Amino acid sequence: MLTPAEVVARAAARGVDVLALTDHDELSGLAEARAAAREAGIAFVCGTEVSVSWDDTTIHILGLNIDPDNAPLAAGLATIRTGRSERARRIGEALADAGIEGAYAGAMRYVTSERLIARTHFARFLVEAGHVREMKDVFKRYLGRGKPGYVPHQWATLTQAVGWIRAAGGQATLAHPGRYPLSDTRMRELLAAFRDEGGAAVEVLSPSHNSAQCAEFAAHARAFDLRGSCGSDFHGPGESWLDLGDLPDLPLGVVPVWTGW
C-alpha cells in the first residue's frame, strides 16, 4: 500500500535500524528503497519473497542479502510474475462465477506495480465492496483453498527458489512457517528438504506466530542447524497487529541470519 520510499520513511520514524524489503517475486522497488534508506541512516538489505509449490502446499522463501542485479534470479522471478498475472485473471473469473462482478478490475486499483498482482489486492477489493468486514475474513470465505475464489497454481520448485537465491549471493529463509497447514511431521520434512537444498534460515519471529510457535521454530532452527530471522511481514498500515519495529529480539540460542554480513 506504500511506495518503497514510504516504507523506509515509516520504518525510520518507528526506530528501525535495519530493514529488508522483500516484495513478492519482485526486485523493482529495491533501488528506490536503498536510496531512501541511505538518506534516513538505515542499514538496508536487498531481498525478495519467492512463491514456491512444495508438494501440494504453497510456501514462501525469502531471499535476504541478495544481489538485485543477478540475472538468473531476475529471470526466475519474471516467470513467476507471468504466472501471477494469469492466476489473477482466473481468480476474477472464479469470483464472477460466484456472483461477484468486477473483482479483477477492483483488485487492479490497489496494484502499485502492474508487474505484480496478488490475492491481497483481491482481498482489499472484497473488503471495500462490502463482501467481508475485515481482511482476515477474506481468505476464510473467498480466497482460501476450497473457497469460491481459490485458484490452484504451480509456483517455482523449492530447488529453483533456493538455487536462484544462492546464485544471487543471498541467504534463503523459510518465511512465516507457522502459516502453513502442515502437521509436525510434515513441517520437519519441509525443514529437512529446505536445509538439504541449501536453505540458510527460518523466520522465527513473525506476526503470524504466537509465543508458542516462536519457541517451536527457535527449537527447529537449532535442531536443523538453521539460522533465525525476524520479519514484520508489513504490507500496509492497519493490516497487521504488529507494525514495523514492533518485533522483540530473537530467542537466546538462535544464530541471527545476518551474522557475518
Give a brief outline of the structure:
With 261 residues, this protein is α/β, with parallel strands linked by helices.
Overview of the structural elements:
With 261 residues, this protein is α/β, with parallel strands linked by helices. It has a domain of 153 residues: Metal-dependent hydrolases (TIM Barrel). 42% of the residues lie in helices and 14% in strands. The protein is built from 9 helices and 6 strands. Strands 1-2-3-4-5-6 form a 6-stranded mixed beta sheet. A hairpin with a 2-residue loop joins strand 2 and strand 3. Helix 1 packs parallel to helix 2 and helix 5 packs across helix 6. The radius of gyration is 18 Å and the shape is globular. The mean pLDDT is 94.
Strand fraction equals 5-15%
CATH topology of the domain at 4-81 and 156-230: TIM Barrel
Computed CA radius of gyration, to the nearest angstrom: 18 Å
What is the CATH class name of the domain at 4-81 and 156-230? Alpha Beta
